[in-house]
Specification:
Order of helices and strands: HHHHHEEHH
Oligomer: single chain
Shape: globular
Distance between the termini: 39 Å
Number of domains: 1
Length: 163
């Protein structure tokens, strides 16, 4: 069977199976919302107020597919999200219209998610060495779309101060 983007020997497969990932997912949404354009995009393009759990489930489903799905499933899910984001716009606090698929905004959202996952799981008692965290960040760079970025590492991530 096609092991997909990451595969069973990865830190991602181990971490993402932990039940604390639900808490980590919620934490990542809060951290992502600290970016003014990220929160504007959600407020203006999402039904999260009417269905917050649905929003979380859709995000969790995407993360699950990217983590555990076959290559074809990952590509299909990523294309669906890219196609959706490509059509969406929002206005920031200055009234400027911006694209939801702005690469810097997507990098913030992805790094905030990854940082939250590691931070929450460590606080929940999941033992992770710095080497495992580096491997996880490496794996998550592969799962970032579009494009994979080397900007997010354990010591350099827009959402995380260096240790």
């Amino acid at each position: 069977m096609d092991a997909g983007l990451l595969g069973p020997g990865t830190v991602t497969w181990q971490l993402h199976a932990d039940p604390a990932m639900w808490v980590a997912g919620i934490a990542s949404l809060y951290l992502q919302a600290l970016h003014p354009r990220a929160v504007a995009a959600i407020v203006q393009n999402s039904n999260f107020r009417q269905d917050p759990l649905g929003r979380l489930r859709r995000t969790a489903s995407f993360v699950g597919t990217v983590s555990y799905g076959s290559t074809e499933e990952v590509e299909r899910a990523a294309a669906r999200v890219r196609d959706l984001h490509r059509t969406l716009r929002a206005k920031d606090a200055t009234g400027r219209t911006f694209r939801i698929d702005d690469p810097h905004l997507l990098l913030w959202v992805h790094c905030a998610e990854v940082h939250s996952f590691v931070t929450v799981l460590r606080r929940a008692g999941y033992r992770l060495t710095d080497t495992q965290v580096d491997r996880y960040y490496d794996e998550q760079r592969r799962s970032a779309a579009p494009p994979p970025s080397s900007a997010c590492t354990r010591t350099k991530c827009p959402a995380a101060p260096a240790r």
